Each structure stands twice: as C-alpha cells, then as structure tokens.
Amino acid sequence: MQPDYLKLLAQFEQEFSPISRHQSVTENQLVEANNLLELLGEEIIWHETTPATNPLNKNLPSDLPKELKQALQQQGIKQLYSHQIKALKAVRQGRDIILSTTTSSGKSLSAYIPILEGVMQHDYTALAFYGLRALTSEQGQKVANLIKSIPQSTQPRLAMLTGDTNKEERERLLATNPQIIGATPELIHFALRGVHWSQPWQQFLSKLRYVLIDEAHTFNGVYGANMAALIRRLKLAVDSNGGNSNQLQFIFLSATIGNPVELARRLSSRNRQRNSTKPDRLVWINSSGAATPSRQLIVTKSSHNANPDAARIILFLLQSGQSGICFCNGRQAIKNLWSTLRQEAIQQGYSSIEKQVAIFYSSLTSQRRAEIIQQLELGQIRCIISTSSLEAGIDLPQLDYVIIRGWPGSLQAFRQRLGRAGRVKAGLAVFIPIAQLPLDNYFATHPQLLLGAPSEQVSFSTNYPIDLAKHLMCAAVETGIPVTKLKYYFGKLALTIATALMEQGVIHKSRGLLWAKGFPHKDVNFRGGINSNTVQLIDAEFGEEVESLSAEIAIHEVFPGAIYRTQNLDGQLVTYRSETLELEMGKALLQLITETQLFTIAVNRVDTCIHQELSTPKIVPLLVTTEESNGSTQVPLSIQLSLGWGEISQQVTGYQLLTRSYKLTCLQKKCVNYKEGLNNHIHCPACGKRLRKAELTTVLNEVEFEQPYAIEFSTPVVQISVSESVNRYWQEIVVRTRTQLLQTKQPIPTNYQQLWEYPAQFLVIHSFGHQILAALPLVVLSGMNDVSFRVEKRGIADYVGLFYDQVEGGSGSAEAIFKQLPKLAKVAGELARNCECESGCPKCLIQPGCPDGNKGLLKEMGLLLCDALSLTEA
C-alpha cells in the first residue's frame, strides 16, 4: 500500500514539547505525584470505586454449646453475620450447603461453628479437604486457636495432615483419635489404602458426619473428576467401617462461580430427588452479611512495558507507606519483575528493596513460604510478587493494594486476586493489561466486564472410563467393593468397567466383593497434567536442595545452560546456571554465578503421533452455499474426522541466550526509535514523545540440543482433515472478502489483515478449533484446560486440526468432540454470532495457552466450518 505522504507532512506541522529534545535527564526531573491517579495520569482507561457496605449482624444463638459460645467471645466474636447463621441452621437440619459469598466474609467460621457444635454434642467427626498444603496449615492454625479457647474437658481433638507432615508426627496425631482432620485430597487418597490396618482411621470413619471442601471452585476438570471419585471411595470406606454415608453432610466453600449448585452436586454425587415432597437436601447460600470496605479498581492502557510500569507503581506505593501484593502469571514473570523492580529502585535511590519485597511461588520450600507470610504479617515485608499461589484461600494481613500484571485467564481468577486487598479496610486494585496478549487487549477495551460479567462455570465429567477404572482399582484394594452396590457407589458405568477389569485379571471376586492387589493409587495423577515426577534443584557447591519443580516445568527452566534465579532467605535474588538435568534421576545440578543481565528462553516444540485408531474414521458432510449467476446453490462437501490413541511430545529443543538492559526509550510503537536505547534524551528525537524507562532485550546466541528434553504422554486425539475441494472453496471466500475490503477504500481493520498473512485453510481450521473449545463446556462436561487444540502442517500447504486431552490417559473430552462435533459446531456458531464482538474475543474465539499464540484467528472464517457442520446437525 502507498504511504499517505500528506499525512506524513502534516505531522511535521504539529508542535513538539518546548523542552529541548536533546536535554539530558537529571534526578530532579523524576515525576512527582500526590496519589496514584495523578502518577498514572493518561495511562488510566478505567477507574471505578465499589462503595462499602454495612454488615448484617446477628447475635450468637443462645442454644450454642456454652463452651463454644464462650470460646467465640474470647476470640472477639460476639456476633455472627447473617449468612453464618443461615449455614448453622441448614447444617442443624441435616442438609448440605454450598456457601459462595464474597472474599473475606467469614466462610471458614460459617463451616466450623456447626462442625464444632456437632463434634461436641454428638461425638461426630469431621474431615476437611484443602487443595493446598499451605492452606491446610493456615486454616488449621485458625481452627486450633478457636479450639484452644474451649475448656480441655470438652475440647475437640484436631489433626492437620499434609505432605510436609512426617510419618512419625502423622502417626502421633492419629494416635490421639482426632475428631477433626484437615488434609489435602492427595493425602486422603493414599491414606484410604491403610485404613484396614489403622484403628484410629477406622474409628474416625465410623463416626464421620461432616465433609468440608474448601475452595470448591478449584476442583475443575480432571481435578474435579478425581475429587468426585475420591468422595465415592470415602463413602464406601465410611460404610465399610460401621458408619453411614447417607448421613454425611457436605459443606462446600467457594468463590463466586457460574454454577455453584451443579458443582456441589457433582462433587458429592447427590442429585436432587425428583418427585420428592422433601425440601432439597442442598442449600445454596450466596447472600453475604459481611461488611465490605470500598474498593477502587484502576485499569491502565495495554502496556508494552509491563515490568517497568508495575515496578513504578510498586515503588510509588511503597514510598507511600502501603503494603500489598503484585500478581504475575508464572514463575519467570515474577522473577523478571523483581529484577526490574530492583533496578528501578537503584535508579531512584530507594534502599533496602530486598528486605521489603519478596517473591512467592509454589516450588519454594514450605519453610520459606511460611517465613514470607510471617514477615508480611510483622510488617518486615511490605510487598509480595506472587504467582497464582496466593490467589485464594490463605488469609493475608490487611493489605492496601493488589496489582494484577496481565490477565490471569478467567474472571474467577481475576476476582480472587482482586479480593486479596480491601478485606478489612479500603483497598486499591490496579490491572495492567499486556499489549502483546489478545486476552489482555480485549479486557483493556471492555473493562466494564471485569466487575459486571458473570463468572465462568466449573465443569468436569464424573464418568470417564479410565478415571473410574483407576479409582475402582483403588477401592478394591482398600475395602473391597460390594458387587450389588457398584452402581450405588460408582455410577451406572461401574459394572461394565469392573467386568472389563475382571476380564483383564486385575480384579477378582470373592465373598460378594471385588478385590485387587498392588498399589494402584500411584497411577492417579490427581490434578491432571502429564507428568507427576519432581526434579530437585541441587546447589552444586553445597549439595543442598534449592527448590523442587515438576518435570514438566523443569525441562523449560533448568535445561543445561539455563539461567535460573531465586530469592534467598535475605531477600536477595541469586542467580544459578544449570549444569545438568537428569529427568530419570529427578535431579538438576545448579552452579551459583554472579548477578548478570543474561537470561535464557526455552525453544519449544510439540509433536503429535497417532499410533492406533480408537474408532473407524468417519466422513462428516458439509453443506455450503455458493453464489452462481442464476442464484445460490448448496454444494455437498465433507471433512474427515478420526479418533486415535496418540502420543504427545512436549519438547525443549534448545534455547536463546539474551541480555536485558533497562534504559530510556521511545514507547510510541510506530516510531523508528521504538524500544531503542536513548539514554541521553528526555524526548524522542524522531516523534517528540516523552521517553520512558523500559526493558530492552537482545538475543546473543541460540543453542540447539543434540537431543531434545521431552515430556511425553499418551491420550486420545481427534484429527480434522479436509479435501482439496473444501480448501479451494475456503480460498475463494478469502479472496472475495479481501476484494470487498479493498473496495471500501477504508483502512483495513487490524484483525482482517490476517486474510493476507495466513493461508485460508489455516485460518478456518484454527478459528473453528478455538470456537469449539469455547463451546465445549456448554455441551460436554469438560474443564477449561482439559483440552488443547493445535494446527499442524502436513505437506507444502496442507493443515490438519488436532484436539487432544491434556492429561495422561485422557479425560473423555476428545471422544465427546469426535462423537458430537456437528452439535458442538451448532452451539459454537450460536455463541460466536451472539457475541457482540466483530472479529473474535475471549468469549467466542481467543483461548489462553494457545500453542499457536492466538495468531491466525478470525471469527468469520471459523463460522464457515461451524455453519457447514451445523446444517448437518439440523
């Protein structure tokens, strides 16, 4: 396209700043501001304050056990919120509850008051599930503090068990015959295997009445499916040890989600009884009586300079005497931000930054994580830069602010992060969208959705054959399964699955029970993923463990030659170079090096190989309409759909060695000096814009490994392939659309420029795959991250689409796509057309974690295939 020279000339007529563009920068020219709004100025695109609300309090019930009432009063609790009273009444009536009130509304106390009452009055026991070890310990401490206020003669016995609790301590706690046990799901998963030899466990299960599931919204996808199966096994264990699973009461505590009642029913396997005159056993409590302080939300423009922008805000708030948390999406992101923050602090003359800021992520040792939280409580640390590890559950001190650097992937996660500040006093939240990411850009242009749109739904399948088979094997080892109650405990598919397992000789029948041997528990990857092995990071000089990572993360972060950073106990960022990575040994050897501006980025590749067919490939007809001289005509075309058992190989084939500098530069994207070092200026010599500090990166070297580091897993794969005639039809549509856009003589919208950048076949298949993923939870019980889709090139100009489950052995989603693709296409088409966007957005097209980087996506192109398949469904 020819440049607009007239427009170019007009730019030179605009007045530049009266300050000389060649004036050097001095310290006294740093921006001074009285508040954050003034500091950010024109960078703000959305600013909203949610007003405070008053509490709705109720007096402590007069019929609470006297000892419990006095204990609450000693803890300073003299009244309860209205929703806490509702929860108490419902549990007293023998009902299940799902409590989904706002953050910091006292949900834990809502659960533990009726639990403690039941334990003290009726000698019941209670089992509390916590998804995180840290959450188990933190909540355990809160409950322990309340219990300590109860006279010892009636004091319930508490045991909090995590993977960090050594065997001797665990046995000591169990020997006290605890009445309340808090644990992670994985711990109970393995503990059920030893119930047969454990009198304390048998006694506990025989009296079990309450099952508390905290942070229930986290049980999504494969994690939710495994949790539901574990509860089925728990019911069987209760009945096998003299208890009554039908009298169990489930107490679910959840953040705000789109389908809390459905989630509670799926986890508990308790559906509403049809044609019953009794009230529904499940009570949903979502109206909070807790006070909520005012909360201010600021959304900035999409940032091309996210780390310096976040660092500038953190330093300003620290200098204002405030404490808070900054969330980043990943371990590397928080380390990079910490490095930038340190450099910015040095430039501003801000001392002792290492003592005031800490980084927090899951692979830190439990001791280090606990120290960071304690130092925050004591005011020694005033800012934490964290991954999603601090997103939910753990009660943090009274924080003033939260910074959200980059879209976290869902509204649910965004709102959880938002709720970390402003829990007791007025809070501030700043969202910094990242310009390079489509999801961030979408919410930067639709900020009203951040607080107004409904949260996503949680979904999973409780009847996937492989998952059920694994848990049936576990139950057959633990207690034996009564043949006559297979369906009662494990659902209608259980009989077929058990029969198949008997035919394979891994389960046998004796005295009316199904039994198995061995240790099948190790085959259950509870939270999904593709590899549950861990890699210890060892300091080469001292032989001490630095951290531990999953194998999946290790191949991306500690490959030989990788620069790896972590924060030591003094708050200083220390730098290592990885010398070796031995996945089979679960070990990586790290050499401490001096601080450097060098860093490394893994070069990734995903390979897909289908080994065998799981079903006969099928030809799915397409009905498309072509325009002829005498009118429109329907033309029959088709695609081929195949379902196979495939191997997915996620590989690191090498890495880039880069250097990072922190300089003044121009951030006007269309300027020739964009992200060029301009340290001797205040304004850009080319465009006149004021310069800003930014991270500038340069690639120094690229290394390719002789043998890639790979994580491999087997899972069902659905492949979509098209004929040459279909490809020609799509190409004709693209050419026609290009012509129409050019004829308008208007600037071509940014997203439509992809019509010139990508082949038609890639555009259609890629867009269609994303639209199917967006529609999947509406048709199939599938979590957001259960399925991946990628486009693979075959030959010179031929592409296929591949759907595959992102878990070893699959989750059932790929098979559902194979069986129900026309139905899914119909829903996907409706979803896309009903969406208010023009060319595609996160609701209908853009997907987090896209292997192809969300490039080559256009709503209109995906609809070509959605519509053609929908007609066959009709």
TrEMBL record:
GO molecular function annotations of the record: helicase activity; hydrolase activity
Pfam family, one: DEAD
Domain of life: Bacteria
Keywords: ATP-binding, Helicase, Hydrolase, Nucleotide-binding
EC code(s) of this entry: 3.6.4.-
Keyword Secreted carried by entry: no
Protein name: DEAD/DEAH box helicase
Record bears the keyword ATP-binding: yes
Listed SMART domains: DEXDc, HELICc
TM helices/strands, residue ranges: none
Domain Helicase C-terminal: 309-466
Domain (Helicase ATP-binding) ranges: 88-275
UniProt-listed PROSITE patterns: HELICASE_ATP_BIND_1 (PS51192), HELICASE_CTER (PS51194)
UniProt xrefs under Gene3D superfamilies: P-loop containing nucleotide triphosphate hydrolases
